[in-house]
Structures are given as C-alpha cells and as structure tokens.
Design a protein that fits this description.
2,3-Dihydroxybiphenyl 1,2-Dioxygenase, domain 1; 4 helices; 4-stranded mixed β-sheet; globular; alpha+beta; 8-stranded mixed β-sheet; 212 residues; 39% strand; 12 strands
C-alpha cells in the first residue's frame, strides 16, 4: 500500500476572502480551480511539491444551497462557519492511496463512506463521513484514490509554494500516533503534545509560513 500526501485543504468564508488572505500570507494568488457539484463547493488550487496540491475551498454561492447531503470538511457546521468568517483555516489533509479498500479495512476508526466524484475525464474515490464531520476533527486524514493517469497537480500552476510538513497536536500524542500507524500514515505528519490542532508548514516566496 503506497500512501502519500495528496493535498491539503484550507477553508475560507468565500474564495475572494481566501485568495486575499493567502496573497498576504504566502505572497502568491492561488488560481481558481473548479466546482464540486455534489457538495455545492468550489476551490482554488496550486502545486505544493512532490505531486501534491494546495486547495483553498469555500461554499459556492452559485450552487444549490442544499446539495442533498452535509458538505465535506464541516463546512455546514456553524462553529466552522464562524471560524472561517474570521479568517481562512486549516481544515483537512488528504492522503492518496492505491488501495482505498485496504485502508478502510485496516482503519481503527470510521473514516466515512467512499464517495465517487468525477470532473471531465478524471474520477476519484474519497472518504467522506455521512454527517460532514472530520475524523478526530481533521487530525486524521481523509483518503483518496484517483483513476489512472497523471496526478492532477501536474496540470496546476507552480507558484513556488511547497508543503514542508503536516503538523498535528493532541493532548495524548501517543494515542494519536498509534492511530496514524494503524493507517500507515505516521510518517506523513509530525505529532506533538498540546491542544488538538492541525497546521501546515509551508515554504513560500515569503519564507516559512505556518497555516493553522
């Protein structure tokens, strides 16, 4: 089973808010991406090194207000919406795998159902909890399996931003590490003791930046 960081998501109240905030923090304007019709969300994306990408995501005001299921990444939760109204926040990290069914079988926690998404000639299977929550509040990753073909990041702009490290903190770091080990992703994140939190350490045109 080959697991690697596929992408990571920064949530925003609106894409315009997120684009402006990222321009100030990172020194680049994240290009607009596409729409997720099944979730009534849209995004901006750019390369983040090692065939991974940076995703800025927000509720799409032009899409149906009710997509028929809770949106992913807790975007429907009032607490998340209140936090994003203040500023963009780190929401989720996503691990790419070539054996999604194996990941689910080995997981010590419920990662959610597997949802099939399509855009153009590409498709992907992604773990999405039915209630729109995030496993352990986003400390555990979502998992994605792409259809055959080049990784989507290869078609995105390289603006000089690379992911250096996924950073996790938890009051019981040993317990969190054991969960990550069971998922075969413990090598993909740094775990420290502290209040539960997710952040991304980036190398950018403005130097080292941590987004939380």
């Amino acid at each position: 089973m080959r697991n690697k960081i596929d992408h990571f998501a920064i949530g925003a109240d609106t894409l315009d808010q997120g684009i402006a905030a990222m321009a100030q923090a990172l020194g680049v304007e994240v290009p607009r991406g596409g729409k997720h019709e099944a979730m009534s969300t849209h995004n901006c994306v750019m390369q983040a090194g090692n065939e991974s990408f940076f995703e800025l995501i927000a509720i799409d005001p032009e899409a149906p207000a009710d997509p028929g299921r809770p949106r992913w990444f807790t975007l429907d939760e009032p607490a998340t919406q209140a936090r994003l109204a203040e500023r963009p926040r780190a929401l989720c990290w996503v691990v790419g795998t070539d054996d999604l069914d194996g990941v689910l079988a080995a997981s010590p926690v419920d990662l959610g159902e597997v949802v099939l998404f399509t855009r153009g000639d590409r498709s992907w299977r992604l773990t999405v909890p039915r209630d729109g929550s995030l496993p352990m509040g986003g400390l555990l990753p979502a998992f994605i399996e792409w259809s055959p073909g080049p990784h989507p990041s290869t078609g995105q702009q390289d603006l000089g931003v690379t992911l250096e490290q996924v950073q996790l903190s938890h009051p019981d770091p040993d317990a969190l590490t054991k969960m990550l080990e069971a998922l075969n992703v413990d090598h993909l994140a740094d775990v420290q003791e502290g209040p539960a939190a997710l952040s991304f350490a980036l190398n950018t045109p403005k130097g080292s930046v941590i987004l939380d």
